[in-house]
UniProtKB/TrEMBL annotation:
<dbReference type="GO" id="GO:0140664">
    <property type="term" value="F:ATP-dependent DNA damage sensor activity"/>
</dbReference>
<dbReference type="InterPro" id="IPR014774">
    <property type="entry name" value="KaiC-like_dom"/>
</dbReference>
<feature type="domain" description="KaiC">
    <location>
        <begin position="18"/>
        <end position="249"/>
    </location>
</feature>
<keyword id="KW-0378">Hydrolase</keyword>
<keyword id="KW-0808">Transferase</keyword>
<feature type="domain" description="KaiC">
    <location>
        <begin position="253"/>
        <end position="487"/>
    </location>
</feature>
<keyword id="KW-0418">Kinase</keyword>
<dbReference type="GO" id="GO:0005524">
    <property type="term" value="F:ATP binding"/>
</dbReference>
<keyword id="KW-0597">Phosphoprotein</keyword>
<dbReference type="GO" id="GO:0016787">
    <property type="term" value="F:hydrolase activity"/>
</dbReference>
<dbReference type="Pfam" id="PF06745">
    <property type="entry name" value="ATPase"/>
</dbReference>
<dbReference type="GO" id="GO:0004674">
    <property type="term" value="F:protein serine/threonine kinase activity"/>
</dbReference>
<keyword id="KW-0677">Repeat</keyword>
<dbReference type="InterPro" id="IPR027417">
    <property type="entry name" value="P-loop_NTPase"/>
</dbReference>
<dbReference type="InterPro" id="IPR020588">
    <property type="entry name" value="RecA_ATP-bd"/>
</dbReference>
<dbReference type="InterPro" id="IPR003593">
    <property type="entry name" value="AAA+_ATPase"/>
</dbReference>
<feature type="domain" description="RecA family profile 1">
    <location>
        <begin position="16"/>
        <end position="74"/>
    </location>
</feature>
Amino acid sequence: MVRLRRGADVGVASGATKFLNTGIPGLDDVLGGGFQERGLLLLFGPPGAGKTTLVFQMAFHAASAGRRVVYISTLAETASRLVEHIGTFSFWDAGLIGKRLFIESIYPLVRQGVAEVARALIDTVRSHGAQLLVLDGLMTIRDLHPQSAEHRLFIHEVSVALAALGCTAVVTTSEVPDMHGSTPSEFTMSDAIVELHQSDVHQQPARALRVWKNRGAPCALGSHAVRITARGLAVYPRIETRPLPGAVPTFAERLSSGQPELDVMMSGGLPRGSVTIVAGAPGTGKTLVMLQYLIEGARQGQKGLLVGFREPYPQLAARARSFGMDLEGPVKEGLITVLRHAPVDLVADEVLAQVLAEVERTGAARLGVDGLGELDHMIAVERRRRGVLASLTEFLRARGVTALFTREVGQVVGPELDFAGSPLDVLAENVIFLRYVEFRGALRRILSILKMRDTLHDHSIRQYEIGAEGIRVLSQVESAEGLLAAIARLPSERRVKRRGTAPGRREGKR
Ligand SMILES: Nc1ncnc2c1ncn2[C@@H]1O[C@H](COP(=O)(O)OP(=O)(O)O)[C@@H](O)[C@H]1O
Ligand SMILES: [Mg+2]
């Protein structure tokens, strides 16, 4: 089975079946190559789901590749109304209209009857020598002729005639059938069925696309995120459908955190290919730990990718500067790449697709994500969280990327960590916990390592300081003895520590 490269126009996906690429970002991946040439594709979805946008984007892709395309609307809509609506998308190319892309309306014929429509479609394809036909709005025909006996034959006749003419057909309908029940005949006759839908998950608007069937191609089942922008439609395949790498390599290297004392606690640093969570209440310095980690990488010539949801880059750079860290230098040199998403209406698959693409593009060895909470929140369906995060960590591990995620925990002062939160808490190999404790009337910062897989890590609790020179973890000797003794006496501290050193966590084999 050959997977088609995006951008290639036609290729062979399986056996002798030729596939027509849609040219829509992500859609060909979901389809497993494209649509069968000379086949019939049925696209359904409620009004506003993006059907007309999708078919035009596909039509322009085909036309710009040299094919002749006919777009036929069943609506009374004039061509100028269509241009008004679809002409604003950047894929619209007025130069192709009337040359390789022909827009027609058959509304008057639709009123006459189904047989007239069929004849007109076939004639139009023949007269233009079209290789792709789009019939936008099958529902109109059904609405006008609900009882017609010819209706059942219509799709069959048209598709047979078009295939003989070497033309691929795309038909849209706003009818949304029960795909698990009995479907109209055109659904059973189609070579491919794609659904576009819009929904609200906890008032978070979401567009999605689903491939119900695509003959001869290994399509990715399930619902995939869609976004419509001025560039048109883009599909973001569910990250879980990415093929998993066969054997995940194991690495012996350690990556310095940029903090010598922390490296000692971690038996040399962060194990390459592992995931580390830096957990702590707001203000404990999680972001600084992450910045220090990325900047240390850059100092060693390793590429880093910073994914942030909170602060815009200038704010982050200024903050780094105020703690004696230079983020702008490595960013200018291209050693650190910053991806920032405002935490508003984020779609997990879209953001993660971008993160994975950037990891591949930049060859990043280090990834810093600030913070995990936003990532969790983006995955609107809670039951998907584990699978999504597991796919992400598998991908990172397979590429030898060492990742650090910051994770906010609710409580400001105190020794306990609420570990009920993210599935990544379980997936991550290492957890570093930052917190404030009160000691002799003042707040002190302390750091501990709650877990580290396959490594005998330091179980001590250390004090750390945040100053103009960044974060500095104090050695055991430097840490206030009375403070540490006081913490050790706290009953809840013993609870946290016991979790962190649970059997199998420390020396257990993976
Ligand atoms: N520039 C844009 N950015 C984001 N969404 C857009 C943009 N232009 C149009 N849309 C949305 O795209 C959708 C287009 O729907 P359309 O293709 O006409 O759907 P259908 O044919 O299924 O009724 C509409 O929901 C519209 O709000
Ligand atoms: Mg439409």
